[in-house]
Amino acid sequence: MQKTFAKWEALAIVVIAAVGLVVIPCLNAFLPHSSPFYISDFAINLWGRYCCYATLAMSVDLLWGYTGLLSLGQCLYFSLGGYMMGMYLMRMIGSLGQYHKSIPDFLVFLGWTKLPAFWVPFASFPFALAMVILLPATLGLVFGFLAFRSRIRGVYFSILTQALTYAACLLFFRNNILMGGNNGFTDFKFMLGFDTRSYSTQRGLYIASVLFLLIVYLGFKWLTATKLGKVQRAIRDSENRVLFSGYAAANFKLFIFVLACVTAALAGALYVPQVGIINPAEMSTEKSLEAVVWVAVGGRGTLVGPVVGAIFVNALKSWATRAFPDSWLFILGGMFLLVVLFLPRGLVGLVEHAVRLLKRAPEQPPAPSDPAPSAASPPPPAAVTRLPAE
Amino acid sequence: MAQGDDQLKLVTQLADTNSDLVRRVLIAWPRDEVFLIDQPDGSKVAVLMEDAQDADGKSNAIRIDTGDYLKDATGNPQKFFPDDLTSVDTDMRLKTVIKNTLELMTLADPDPENRRSAVMKLGMLQKLAYVPVLQARIQKETDARVKSALAQAIDIIQLKSPDSTTQIAAIRDLGALDSIAGLDDIKAVIDDPHSTPDAVTVARKSLGQINTYLSWVDFYGTLFRGLSLGSILLVVALGLAITFGLMGVINMAHGELIAVGAYTCYVVENVFGSGLSLSPFGLSFHIPGLNLSGWQFQTYFLFAIPAAFMAAALAGIVLERFVIRFLYRRPLESLLATWGVSLILQQSFRIFFGANNVSVNSPSWLSGNFTVSDVILGYNRIFVIGFAIVIVFLTWLLLSRTPLGLLIRAVMQNRNMAACMGVRTERVNMLTFAFGSGLAGLAGAFLSQIGNVGPNLGQNYIVDAFMTVVVGGVGNLFGTVYSALGIGAFDEILQQVFGSPVVGKITVLVCIILFLQWRPSGLFATRGRGLDT
């Protein structure tokens, strides 16, 4: 991989960016509702959410597909980002809440008359944004440092991340940490002076989500092509060899982990104003596992995979939960089984496989004169699983 | 019927009659269920209505004075609508007196537990008038615990005694009796400005005595609950210690295998009872019941235990054959695939048994409790502890003393080498996984006796179970035993300290994460020469 981008890939990105950032919002904003090309406000909101999910999935993939760290707690960071943004949004409600007090409704309900100290600075958007990044980063740094220092890896790492998420979820269900308890935060009104319930704000949030997804995609693309990216994959394939080669694997892992946490948190911060609610259910271990499903279905170890997977699974979910409300879990569980057992490289792997078959078929007859048949067909994909060191 | 104070006195005197009719009248009276009926001759008769109603909603009336049915001129029992009749008035004072009289009557109840609670209630009233009654009763009483309750009640009442020597003697007595019931009343004596200085001094001393005793009771109670919580964790985690610890398979569906066991218990219970109707996917079918009752029904749990083991083991075999055997070399992916299985199973439970929790009635020999010096020991918790011991012992026996155990250990140590020696590793894998799953089923049978059974039953335990195995040291069964008991006790103590189960749980999880910093491979690490083990 000498170049970061193949020509067709660069073209595809530009086209997708143009469509996602310019064409779709324009179709939504300027066409009359009767036009066949009109894109509904609902669809804009839905795709904005899908983009946040896709970003979350990419953060999972950066850890799992590229570094071999299966984190079952990525939703913890996603929700923490969401909660920090939620705190800002709660402050922005001002005295428009049910109780018409200057403090958030749930605090009134809990018997508070004055804003608790840690809520005070969240009236400032820059502060909230800083917290969206800093809090998950700090948690990721501390947890990652502890985990990687004592060389907790493989499934142990997964189980620990799950336990941490579980503990955090239990914590956020409590009322006395003053984070909304069971109901979380909802009923948002304003964000940066814009009404979050208006369609134009939702459109703006959609554009921000697409933009962020693109930035993350390009950033990860670049990162995984650098030397650091190579070390990352080396750690995935054989951590011990990396260690023996003199690399401090733990530091690399820590950096990647914190980066993934921050990415997930920012995606969460963009997600919350679009759905209008954040509660501890978002933090449950099932949600994190669901994000892992997206990556597995899309194809891990690629950057397109998580995006495709997140959008595919969520679109399927929106459809199936309405069409077959009782069977959605069967579909999700079955899909998971199928992908793990038969499609270890996900949908992207399936497409690549099909493309290779198609390419090979017509190429066969003139092949003898082709000087580099092996270069034309890419080498077999790098072993996705860690090879048994025998 | 007499009026006013006479009435009160009469009611109190009724306590000595100890007749069933009197009790029924006294229960019915404050509820306005005693009626006056005008007789043809102009007199009024007080009656009580029978519970049984005929087709018109009328019932027979029982004469309070004779206990017979109220009859008309021809001698047939008369029937009345309760709504048509005028009930006999009561006031608050009368109601209180009636209630206390009933308690006094309960003193002669054949059930010692009823006697005891009546004694305690009378003691709380602190009416000196009751002292002679209780003292008379203490002579006749044979049950030791009721006797102690009587002594305490008398002392508690005498705290109100105007005679300060009696009062001080009572306070001293309560201290010597370690009376928890008397705690608040002794505090009241200390706070009372009319108490003599002597009484206050003695009261302080008694209070100290009782508090010391109380902290011991709390301590042993916590220890016991911790032990039983640890035993539950142990049974839940033991299956996981085999599938995860020995085989290295991350079975996220372990929780659902537990639920399989619990639901099996539910089905067996219903088969012994009145049968069970299920309607999955719009189909409906009925499992006929045996309609047993009494002790025969109570034995259902003895059948449910092996059934739960078999059902879960069978589910485990299916899971192993169709999913897990392809993933032995890919532990992370076995985690994901089994999570998919767990979703499917959860939804199946919802479809078969409904989304709501179902409750499994404990057999009578598992409900109830007994008290050893004020520490309450529930039968089910004792059963849990005993059962855990038996299961651990049997597992140990199987693994270390049987040919199958030898094969299991060989395959787990080195699958390829075992295969070279002619061990049919596929079969051993399957049996080991089935055994681990069966243990999960047993855990489910267990949990069904402690709480409700629902589709998410397993989810509540899965994280704890994994933690227990990791802390104990993967691949070491006895590590799991120690860590389960340790985590159970620690959890229970923290719950006491923080006064909230959730905060206790969070603290435990954080402590476990920190503990793994110190010992990354758990309490008892299995040492291997390989780098990746």
Shape verdict of chain B: flat
**Sheet/helix structural class of chain A:** mainly alpha
Q: Order of strands side by side in the largest beta sheet of chain A?
A: 1-4
Number of distinct helices of chain B: 20
- Bin the strand percentage of chain A: under 5%
Our Rg estimate of chain A from Cα atoms comes to 23 Å
Which chains make the largest contact? A-B, 44 and 40 residues
Proportion in helices of chain B: 55-70%
For the record, the count of structural domains of chain B works out to 3
- What percent of residues of chain A adopt helix (DSSP H or I)? 55-70%
Please state the overall shape of chain A, judged from the principal axes of the Cα atoms: globular
How does the SSE layout of this entry go?
The complex is a heterodimer of chains A (390) and B (533).
Chain A: H1 7-30, H2 41-67, H3 74-93, H4 105-109, H5 125-149, H6 154-172, E1 185-186, E2 190-191, E3 194-195, H7 199-225, H8 227-237, H9 239-244, H10 249-275, E4 277-278, H11 285-298, H12 304-323, H13 328-342, H14 346-363, H15 373-376
Helix pairs in contact in A: 1-7, 2-7, 2-8, 2-10, 2-11, 2-12, 3-5, 3-10, 5-10, 7-10, 8-10, 11-12, 11-14
Chain B: H1 4-14, H2 20-28, E1 34-38, E2 44-49, E3 59-63, E4 79-80, E5 86-87, H3 92-106, H4 112-125, H5 131-140, H6 144-158, H7 164-176, H8 183-191, H9 197-246, H10 254-272, E6 276-278, E7 285-287, H11 294-298, H12 300-322, H13 331-353, E8 369-372, E9 375-378, H14 379-401, H15 403-413, H16 415-420, H17 425-450, H18 459-472, H19 477-498, H20 501-518
Antiparallel strand pairs in B: 1-2, 1-5, 2-3, 3-4, 6-7, 8-9
Give a structural overview.
- The complex is a heterodimer of chains A (390) and B (533).
- Chain A is mainly α and 390 residues long.
- Chain A has one domain (40-361).
- Chain A is built from 15 helices and four strands.
- Chain A has helices at residues 7-30, 41-67, 74-93, 105-109, 125-149, 154-172, 199-225, 227-237, 239-244, 249-275, 285-298, 304-323, 328-342, 346-363, 373-376; strands at 185-186, 190-191, 194-195, 277-278.
- Chain B is α+β, with helices and mostly antiparallel strands and 533 residues long.
- Chain B is flat, with a radius of gyration of 32 Å.
- In chain B, helix 9 (197-246) packs parallel to helix 14, helix 14 (379-401) runs antiparallel to helix 17 and helix 18 (459-472) packs across helix 19.
- Chain B has helices spanning 4-14, 20-28, 92-106, 112-125, 131-140, 144-158, 164-176, 183-191, 197-246, 254-272, 294-298, 300-322, 331-353, 379-401, 403-413, 415-420, 425-450, 459-472, 477-498, 501-518, and strands spanning 34-38, 44-49, 59-63, 79-80, 86-87, 276-278, 285-287, 369-372, 375-378.
- Chain B has 20 helices and nine strands.
- Classes of the chains: A mainly alpha (390), B alpha+beta (533).
